[in-house]
Amino acid sequence: MPGFSFALKRRTRIMWKPPLRKLSSYLLVTALLVSAAFWAGQYIYAFHLEGSKASISQWICFSGVLFTSLFVGGVGCIGLFLRRHGRQIQRIYDTKLKQMSLAHNPDFLAMNAGDLILLLDPPAKQAGEYRGRSEDGNGTVSPPALGTPPPGRLEENLQIQVSSPDRGEVPPFEELDAGIPRDGVRVLYGSPKTVEAEARKAYQSMIQDVEAAERELNELERNQSKRRYRIVSEFASDWNYWQGPDREMLYVSPASQDITGYPSQEFYKAPDLLDSLIDPQDRPLWKSHNADELAEKGPGHLEFRIRNREGDVRWVSHFCKPVHDHTGTFLGVCGSNRDITVQKRAEEAVQVKTQELLRSNGELEQFAYVASHDLQTPLRAISGYLNLLCKRYEEHLDGDARRFIERTNQNVLRMQRLINDLLTFSRLTTRAHPFQPTDCNQVVREVVEMLHPVLEETGGRVIPEPLPTVLADGSQILQLFQNLIGNALKFRDHKPPEVRISAERADKGWLFSVRDNGIGIDPQYGERIFLIFQRLHTVDQYPGTGIGLAICKKIVERHGGQIWVESKAGEGAVFKFLIPEQGGIPS
Amino acid sequence: MNAPQGGRPIQILMVEDNPDDIELTVEALKDARVGNFLSVVKDGEEAISYLRCQGKYQQAARPDLILLDLNMPRCNGHEALEGIKRDPALRSIPVIVLTTSTREEDIVLSYSRGVSSFISKPATFDRLIQVAAEVGRYWAETVTLPPNDH
Question: Is the Cβ of A370 closer than 8 Å to some Cβ of chain B?
Answer without folding.
Answer: no
